[in-house]
Specification:
alpha/beta, UDP N-Acetylglucosamine Acyltransferase, domain 1, 2 domains, 12-stranded parallel sheet, 9-stranded mixed sheet, 4 helices, 17% helix
């Protein structure tokens, strides 16, 4: 009863007050988690990893709700049922998604669900006494799988690693790894995921181009006066100047070799890791890379 009361009260408060209220009853919430006001979480178990975001209008009433590190829950998610919704690290759930959790729903690492999609773990309405069937079963999305805009996923469906369901797909059968599907069950097109291009091998050159694009994007959209000089981005913020470089010495460094770290702030684009430090400049750059390049960096665990 006390847990439910605190969960309802938390609905009316922004972060960090709602985070504190959830922690009072035992919710495990990591560092720099943002939960908007107007978010209702009714669950026996509630856990959120570091730097995750849960946006306004999210309504969850299930048994166990877990959100991984750096995952993003979009506006107006509705999740209801007697079972669990477990979301892995670096996932994105788009706005106005509906998830039925009468059986477990599990998302692996770096998964995405597009806006307006529906996931149902049951199919039942009409009376079985008249010969109608009922179906109950879990839904699982393997690592780096993607259900795009306005898809429907039915019970007992497993979406294989790196597979993609194209917009508007009605998916009532499992997908093997590395596939791309589209259409409805009557004419499902199931082909190899040829959208995967060759991996970028020259990460240093890629990072330099991305840094230049970031400078141009900010100057065009936010009227900033940033400058690129000799491969280094200079950002003037009030009385201080920040710098971003590739494998250099600067305020923020883009690293291109897997496993490499720095003492200061960095993003390693080879293994998608970052340091645990936080600043507005770093967060702004982080959001840009996630939006335009699909790069989600997870903080290194000490």
């Amino acid at each position: 009863m006390i847990r439910t009361i605190l969960q309802v009260i938390a609905f009316f408060f922004p972060s960090p007050f709602n985070v504190w209220l959830h922690r009072l009853y035992g919710a495990r919430i990591g560092k720099r988690v943002r939960i908007h006001p107007g978010v209702m979480i009714i669950a026996r178990e509630f856990a959120v990893g570091d730097v995750a975001k849960i946006r306004f209008g999210t309504m969850v009433n299930i048994r166990s709700f877990k959100v991984g590190r750096k995952s993003l829950i979009g506006y107006f998610l509705i999740a209801k049922g007697i079972s669990n919704l477990h979301i892995g690290d670096a996932c994105v759930i788009g706005p106005k998604t509906i998830i039925n959790c009468d059986c477990p729903v599990t998302l692996g690492y770096y998964c995405g669900i597009g806006p307006g999609s529906s996931l149902f773990t049951h199919g039942s309405l009409l009376p079985v006494t008249e010969g109608y069937k009922t179906t109950f079963g879990p839904i699982e999305m393997k690592d780096k799988s993607w259900v795009t805009l306005r898809c429907t996923v039915g019970p007992n469906v497993t979406i294989g690693e790196r597979s993609i369901a194209m917009p508007g797909t009605v998916l009532l059968e499992s997908i093997a790894p590395g596939r791309m599907v589209s259409g409805d069950p009557a004419k499902l097109t199931n082909i190899p995921n040829i959208t995967l291009g060759k991996k970028i091998t020259d990460l240093e050159n890629f990072a330099a181009k991305m840094l230049t694009a970031y400078c141009e994007w900010s100057n065009e959209n936010f009227d900033t006066q940033w400058e690129m000089k000799s491969g280094v981005l200079y950002i003037k913020k009030r009385w201080r100047t920040y710098t971003i470089s590739v494998n250099g010495e600067s305020s923020i460094v883009l690293l291109t070799r897997s496993g490499e770290t720095r003492k200061g702030m960095y993003f390693n684009i080879a293994d998608l890791s970052t340091d645990p430090a936080h600043s507005r400049i770093k967060e702004h750059f982080d959001d840009y890379m996630r939006l335009y390049y699909g790069l989600t960096f997870l903080p290194q665990i000490a």
